[in-house]
Amino acid sequence: MDGMKTLNQPPRPESLRLELPHLEPTRPEPSPPDPPRPDATPFVHLHVHSNFSFLDGGSHIEDLVFRAASLGQPALALTDHDGLYGAVRFAKACARLSIKPIFGAEVQVEPVLPHLAPPHSYHLVLLAETRAGYANLCRLLTAAHLAHPDRKQPPLVTLDSLRVHAEGLICLTGCRQGEVGYLVDAGHAQEARTVLLTLKEIFAEDRLYVELQYFAYHPPAPTTGHLRHLHPSDQEIGFYPDGRPWRLSCLTYCEQLGRLASSCKLPLVFTNNVHYAEASDLAIHLVCRAAGRDQPLSGYPENHLGTRYVKSKAELEAFAEPLLRLLRTWRPTDCSGEHLEGPPFTSTKSQLGPEGPTNLTNLDPPPTSDPLLVTWEIAKRCNVDLELGAFHFPQVPIPEGETAYSLLAKRCFKGITRRYKPVPPEAIKLLEKELRMIQEMGFAHYFLVVHDIVRWARARGIPCSGRGSAGNSIVCYALDLTASDPLRHNLLFERFLNPYRREMPDIDVDFCSVRRDEVIEHIYKTFGPENVAVVANVNTLSPRTAVRIVAEALGFA
Q: What backbone phi and psi angles, to 5 degrees, belong to 261?
């Protein structure tokens, strides 16, 4: 849809008319946000989905970061479904706009209480607090995906895995599709408390937060059929993905979560469950969701999704004012856990009244810190640097008394005597120049690793050949990685490796497709499966396919 300017659906009585926003190909980048003033604690979005939450998120990572920077927010989290697919793009986008990136994911976890659980799994938001936490999150996601390689079932994080790999991770309990939220909404108070205490045991009280989300919304206006701006005063309805309605209103649901958190002595944190950058991007998000569920937008029930964009702190405070007012005026008895005695929950509408609590005497302070301000406290704790641009080469065995560079030089000079009969002085001069540059840039180990892999394959009769800009290097020619003579053809080495452009050397080696798996298996055994990865590809839709899917979502098919 990147190339689409506008898309209008003719008005029909049985469906909504969506007006997609004008998509600008480029826009000026905002200035980096100023550091927060000591007396002005910022809000940070900690639950955010991009288009890497496939057929759910409605905005590119760059647009989400742009929006946060435009609002002067100092940090932003990315928590796509079941993966860290966008982590590198996210880190680069944040670096360009001087925003602190917080890496995370919304994972699907097996139930703590499966006998009460209609769903196969529940949502949980995990944020990497440390580099060890990022590694543990990767391990959790890898194990979850490998458990179901046929993809017939969603990737599921087991509780045992969560216990083993919880170090360095901060946990948010998630939305109503989280087990805590689901049980609270269903009226199972004590069971929800059991689940929360289990999570507290896994993460400890300083790394577990009860997540509040406030979405008050209404059905589309029947007179116009348009999606319009949503306001808390409108009628509240809500649905789970399987079509079942929510049991509790947003305010009552959040109130009960707050009581539950207080009874377990856990802090609250406010999120907006962001799925797109700006309010005007709602139509794109709805089309993606409809396509993902293979159903048209006609009669689409989840119109509360119109609130799930990157809001400013002021917008959130205004929108969620009824909830924030309630949190700030709880009575001591409100925090005792007395209202958690089984279903149904006791409504506290009489305490609220149309203008808030009717009796403001003898009130204690809130049971937790302001859930909006807690987001900044969490953001300050999350410090993970992907070290993009840093080189981490595998190590090959180096004989005693040798270095990686000296071993590489010996192999090259031995190889050059085999390539040239006799060896011309120009070849020696060129080889010394390239070796000196490789030493200065610290790439000796890289060449040794590639040489060992190619040498192993050739020793077993597996056809292979290097190609690309590596053919410009006499080092690669001497190591028998490539077949072209750079001296004879006067090839430019700097096209392959340039000290003024500090990038990884790129030696492309093609192996016989019939025996390629043998080479991969050898690499796994040599360096360990935890240190070897197959390059990932992100598939995109052709324009024709994209138009067909959008047309089906809009009801034209």
A: -60, -40
Quick: pLDDT tens for 103-130: 999 999 999 998 876 667 899 999 999 9
The type of residue at 473 is: S
What does the DSSP assignment read for 200-230? HHHH-GGGEEEEE------PPPTTT-B----
Comparing CA positions, the residue from 335, 392, 326 lying closest to residue 360 is 326
Q: Which amino acid is at 159?
A: L
Angle between helix 61-70 and 87-96 (nearest 10): 30
Whether the pLDDT of residue 235 is over 80: the answer is no
Question: Residue type at 308?
Answer: R
Q: Report CA dihedral (415, 419, 422, 426) to the nearest 10 degrees.
A: -80
Tens digits of residue pLDDT in 33-77: 665 554 467 999 999 999 999 989 999 999 999 999 999 999 999
Residue 93 belongs to what H/E stretch? helix 87-96
Q: Which of 340, 399, 335, 396 is nearest to 367 (CA)?
A: 335
End-to-end, the C-alpha distance of the chain in Å comes to 18
Q: Which domains does the chain have, with CATH numbers?
A: 61-381 (3.20.20.140), 404-531 (no CATH)
- Phi, psi (5° rounding) for residue 280? -70, -10
Q: How far apart are CA 46 and CA 276, in angstroms?
A: 14
Within 342-495, strands assigned E span 464-467
Residue that the structure tokens 């377990």 belong to: 264
pTM equals 0.78
pLDDT for res 305: 59
Determine phi and psi for 394, rounding to 5 degrees: -65, 155
Amino acid letter for position 323: L
CA 231 to chain centre: 29
C-alpha to C-alpha distances, 394 to 79, 132, 403, 531, nearest whole angstrom? 30, 20, 14, 8
Residue 354, amino acid: P
Distance CA 444, CA 159 (A): 43
> Token pair for residue 454?
């190619």
pLDDT in tens, 300-352: 555 555 789 999 999 999 888 888 888 777 643 444 344 443 332 233 333 33
Q: Which residues of 500-520 are buried (b: 16+ CB within 10 A; e: fewer)?
A: eeeeebebebebeeeeeeebe
Q: Kindly report the CA angle at 276 between 270 and 278, in degrees rounded to 5? A: 95
